[in-house]
Records
---
Amino acid sequence: MQCALCKEKKCYTGQNCTKLSIADVEAVYDEQDMRLTIAAAAIEGRHYMQLSRLEESVKFAQELGCKTIGVAFCIGLANEAKYIVKYFQKFFTVHSVCCKVCGIDKQRFGLEQIQADRFEAMCNPAIQAKILNDAGTELNFTVGLCVGHDMIFNRHSAAPVSALVAKDRLLSHNPLGAIYAGYWRNKRLGLAD
């Protein structure tokens, strides 16, 4: 499949470009998938282009009937995570865990450091997920976990995960800035129109 390069996008109006039947598609969606799909469609239908992602996340969790949610955040976004958690606490019991949880030296695992001459705590996404799993969170939100660390967190999370903030240190945590800004897209990425 090369959907990103398709010029027509006829799937939007009902064309099936795959060899999958409706029955094949239905077979993939289990009970949890359907629960999430129904809630996602409800939020999209009721609030399309009316809510920020933060507000939409609250509505989505409420639609699912969640009482307890988790926030796994990067220490570099600790201040932002504080405000996010305060907002979520208006509606839910919230558990949050920092990426540097346990304070383990990168050297213990032979990990590359930013500055080799000082102590650097490793990011610990598997333990972030374990702590939130142990807290019984029903949904987890990530706030700026690094590429790779987010994948590890998602693998270990017992609850469904949504990225509230995607880390992009150079572009103020707006990865699409590299696509929207002509200089980045054309010069840095070599993606001229």
Note: The mean pLDDT is 94.
---
Amino acid sequence: MADTSPSSCQGCRNGAELFPFTMAFQPVVDLPRRVVYAHEALVRGPEGQGAYSILSQVGPDNRYAFDQACRVKAIELAARLQMSSKLSINFLPNAVYRAEACIRLTLATAEQHGFPVENIIFELTEDERSKDLVHLESIFTEYRRRGFITAIDDFGAGFAGFEFLAAFQPDVIKLDMSLVRGIDGNRVKRSIVAAMVGLCSELKIRTVAEGVETREELRVLTDLGLEFFQGYLFARPGLECLPEVDWSAAG
């Protein structure tokens, strides 16, 4: 039932027709412990079509409804698959009018399906990052207060990352694949990632390397002190399933 209480914002009361979609899940591995730390929920078409086929249909009129529907779909599927790891969900900050009101459906869905709130990670993606740092900080503060884990996705893909990091320190930072790809042959990338690992360690932020595809990349990243990885080297996204991890890739 829709929340029409005075405390809910207009965005929470506006509905929109949505297109069918589903989710694929890709593991984030904790390599030293040989366990899956989290599964990232990645939007897909109902027959497994790529994310663009869905995201290209999102606009101002349905952004809020889509953001809410993604959260519900991810939690429902995670519960159905009996996911014991953490569940990582990308969110659209420009679809969050007031965090304390817009989070209600997420909390209700998690309770309905018995999925622990403390196992949900909310990722802020670089290309969806709002210029309103005060608004973003209020969202992250409210999410953390509710028990969610907070993360910055695609860190290093744009120019606003450090500005936001100075304002609010998330629980997790996911290094963009542009910093990871070919790092074994790029001294500058190695220096940047080494500095990021040191910074995150000092700030007590968990660091994940995204887009790891080769053993050579993995070797350099582990030498730099990274322990958490996501990429085709370990597992491709699985449509409505939890794919098996290829631990042999780590040797």
Note: The CA atoms of residues 199 and 205 lie 8 Å apart.
